[in-house]
From TrEMBL:
Monomer. Keywords: Lyase. SUPFAM superfamilies: 2-methylcitrate dehydratase PrpD. It comes from the Bacteria. Gene3D superfamilies: 2-methylcitrate dehydratase PrpD (1.10.4100.10). Pfam families: MmgE_PrpD_C (PF19305), MmgE_PrpD_N (PF03972). It catalyses: (2S,3S)-2-methylcitrate = 2-methyl-cis-aconitate + H2O. Belongs to the PrpD family. It comes from Agromyces mediolanus. This is 2-methylcitrate dehydratase. Residues 293-482 form the MmgE/PrpD C-terminal domain. GO terms for molecular function: 2-methylcitrate dehydratase activity.
């Protein structure tokens, strides 16, 4: 790996292309280096994972809304269009709107892969825009499954490398500001574009996808699922403009009025961004991890610990009156983003939105502790949130930051990087129950790491009752052949809802 030193430059310094981060990212995207077999295997896993969580969300209101918007637009004339999750694959729309609809479906349940470091990320958000462009231009450009895999590997590499080095949330900028550039670069790799074109697309994608983190603060709304889909849509449009010869703000990161100077650490800020050398394999996808549970990733290990405690102390933990308090000693991020350190009263409100509850570790830990399980629908239902004994326990749970768990959270050593913490349960009789967990069971270093079998099982579980049995088998067979797919097979990288699943849904109307 190489390290790119990133800082603000005055306009009169005339920073050359080669010294700009966007150019370095473009060089990485244009590098024709082959992929390692384990990276190819993991790309296939994540394509299956995305489809799984999309299947489970097809009838949810934000997904229905985004799908209806996509189908309000005709297929653009430059290609064959792209498919939309849930719909008949013969019905296509323009790639940017397919990426929009599919991106919302993938993110709606907050149930796909994650990478956490200086910044948060869900690198699987790169997949919908890359696949949409591939389907649209497969016939015209002879794109294959191997091209798709290479594009996705680039998207993961860039988003994860940026997340390792550059904190956005510290300055209340939403994490999708890393996704716009990574998706644009991934599309550049997919299409085999030159460095200059990719460079301009990255700059435009970044410029149009910087927004505040209010979408993940307080009363969290349905925009949380739309934000990454918007970034993917903007990335496609940025690539389109760049291919037509249009240019972007330069230097986008380093300029006097650029991203660093005014949105991040300011004129004196600097970063060390790790990037593969030219000719070095793109392997960052292997640093990411998926979710076994439908909740914010920083809650994954805590759900597993709660399940373990439920089995060990069922008589004690079933009764809130036996418990005086529960304190989760954890990282800065967990405490301030999904814990009591956020100072969001909504995190303790039974009437809060699902999006808010999935960012409330006090709620999640209470339910998992009482149920010994977690379900992507039942655990968030209004009935579950209003259960009196749950509310009583919920309001006894708080978080505190622990310096060692914060250090481990930020460690770039995969062997010690951790997202859990230590729980101290103080009982009404004065006794204590103390336990800890470092990583989720499904994490590569966890008790039950996810492999192909678990990704397939997750797809079957979430697709059950949504897709017909034949459709489940068709998709799994095709997805597992992704690196070998021909141009005419790429259109099959979608899922079609079973008869009646989408019938009768209220379709919202708008401008289109």
């Amino acid at each position: 790996m190489q390290t790119h030193h990133l800082r603000t430059h005055r306009s009169d310094e005339d920073l050359p292309r080669e010294g700009q981060l966007a150019w370095q990212l473009a060089e990485l995207a244009a590098d024709p280096v082959e992929l390692d077999a384990d990276v190819v295997d993991m790309v296939v896993n994540r394509v299956i994972d995305n489809a799984a969580v999309a299947a489970a969300s097809l009838t949810r209101r934000p997904v229905v809304s985004a799908r209806s918007q996509a189908f309000a637009h005709p297929v653009s004339i430059g290609g064959e269009g792209a498919t939309v999750f849930g719909a008949d694959p013969a019905r296509r729309t323009s790639p940017e709107w397919a990426a929009w609809a599919n991106g919302v479906a993938v993110r709606e349940l907050d149930y796909h892969d994650t990478f956490l470091a200086a910044e948060y990320s869900h690198p699987g958000d790169n997949i919908p825009p890359i696949v949409a462009v591939a389907q649209h231009l497969a016939a015209a450009r002879g794109l294959t499954g191997r091209d798709v895999v290479r594009g996705i590997a680039t998207g993961y590499e860039i988003q994860i490398d940026l997340a390792k080095a550059i904190s956005l949330h510290k300055h209340k900028i939403d994490h999708v500001a890393h996704l716009g550039p990574s998706a644009a670069a991934g599309i550049g790799t997919l299409l085999g574009l030159d460095r200059e074109t990719i460079f301009q697309a990255i700059g435009q994608a970044l410029h149009t996808t910087t927004a505040t983190r209010q979408s993940r603060k307080g009363e969290i709304s349905s925009w949380k699922a739309h934000a990454p889909a918007f970034a993917g849509k903007m990335a496609i449009e940025a690539v389109d403009r760049a291919m037509r010869g249009e240019t972007s703000p330069v230097p986008i990161y380093e300029g006097e009025d650029g991203v660093i100077a005014w949105l991040l650490d300011g004129p004196d800020g600097s970063y060390e961004v790790p990037l593969p050398e030219r000719g070095e394999a793109k392997r960052a996808i292997l640093d990411s991890y998926t979710k076994e549970h439908s909740a914010e990733y920083q809650a994954q290990a805590w759900i597993d610990l709660a399940r373990r405690l439920h089995e060990a102390y069922p008589l004690i933990l079933d009764d809130p009156e036996r418990i005086e308090s529960i304190v989760l000693h954890t990282s800065h991020h967990t405490h301030y983003v999904i814990g009591s350190g956020a100072n969001d009263p909504q995190k303790y409100d039974p009437d809060a939105s699902r999006e808010t509850l999935d960012h409330s570790i006090p709620y999640i830990f209470a339910v998992a502790l009482q149920d010994g399980a977690w379900h992507h629908e039942h655990s968030y239902s209004p009935e579950r949130a209003h259960r009196p004994e749950t509310v009583a326990l919920w309001r006894k749970i708080s978080t505190v930051e622990d310096a060692e768990w914060t250090r481990r959270y930020h460690s770039l050593d995969i062997a010690e990087k951790a997202f859990g913490g230590r729980v101290v349960i103080t009982l009404a009789d004065g006794g204590e129950i103390v336990d800890e967990i470092a990583v989720a069971d499904a994490h590569p270093l966890g008790a039950r790491p996810f492999a192909r079998e678990q990704y397939v099982q997750k797809f079957r579980l979430l697709a059950d009752g949504v897709l017909e049995a034949d459709e489940i088998e068709r998709f799994l067979e095709l997805a597992q052949r992704l690196p070998e797919l021909s141009p005419d097979e790429l259109g099959g990288l979608t899922i079609t809802a079973g008869p009646g699943v989408l019938a009768g849904l209220a379709i919202p109307t708008g401008l289109f």
